[in-house]
Amino acid sequence: MRKAVVLYSAGLDSTTCLAIARSEGFTPYAISFDYGQRHRHELTIAKANARHFGAAEHLVVSFDLRQMGGSALTADIEVPKGGVGPEIPVTYVPARNTIFLSFALGWAEVLGAFDLFIGVNALDYSGYPDCRPAFIDAFQRTANLATRAGVEGNGQFQIHAPLIALTKAQIIRRGVALGVDYGLTHSCYDPSPEGLSCGSCDSCRLRLKGFQEAGLTDPLRYSV
Fold first, then answer.
1. Within a 13 Å sphere around the CA of 59, how many CA atoms are in the beta-carbon half?
2. How far apart (Å, rounded) are the C-alpha atoms in residues 96 and 205?
3. Which helix (H) or strand (E) holds 128?
């Protein structure tokens, strides 16, 4: 089985992506990030469940984007609770997926893996620029230009984004078909101290909308 590095936040999308990687015959190596995010509860869930969802290893990389701020997830900025408009919302973390994929690429090169999975989505999403197909294509080109493995011709890196053109409901149905227990995931940007999802931030709204449109009940507990 080929190795694949999977970006895993314990969210609905990344967990589905991990299941897809397994279903396609890859041995997943999960990578999560402790970057100073206000919703660090996701790391608790990720550490508890990465192996459960089939990860051969689980790496947590730590750095602190609070030093730069600029986002409601890394600075003292209120998380929007009434929905977001057409503009890029304040929950966007500057260059986050570029940073995440760079770490994942480095680990992949060490592991001898040429496949990276990321659960970005460009339909039911918050409008983040680093979730679009153009970004994924550009990073894949960069990966093959900027690495020893790519330049020496040992293989070609491929960035898999299997959810990018799916609705949230389609993602949930795909995950259910693969046996994903969504009760072991976490999506909220502003959870309670006990880890309960707020139900009002954009991430919670998109998640709940997806379950409703899929005709299913979200197994998570919410604080409202």
1. 16
2. 21
3. none
Enumerate the domain spans of the chain.
2-214
pLDDT tens for each residue of 80-114 = 998 877 899 999 999 999 999 999 999 999 999 99
Q: Which residue has the higher pLDDT, 224 or 171?
A: 171
Amino acid type, 212:
Q
Residue listed under structure tokens 């260059």: 95
- State both tokens at 104: 């994942």
pTM: 0.97
Neighbouring CB atoms inside 10 A of 70's CB total 15
Residue listed under structure tokens 């500057």: 94
- Residue 213, helix vs strand vs coil: helix
CATH number of this structure's domain 2-214, picked from the four choices 3.10.20.90, 3.40.50.620, 3.40.50.140, 3.30.70.2190: 3.40.50.620
User: Per-residue DSSP letters for 44-110?
Assistant: HHHHHHTTTTT-SEEEEEE--GGGT--STTTSS-PPP-S---SSPPTTPPTTHHHHHHHHHHHHHHH
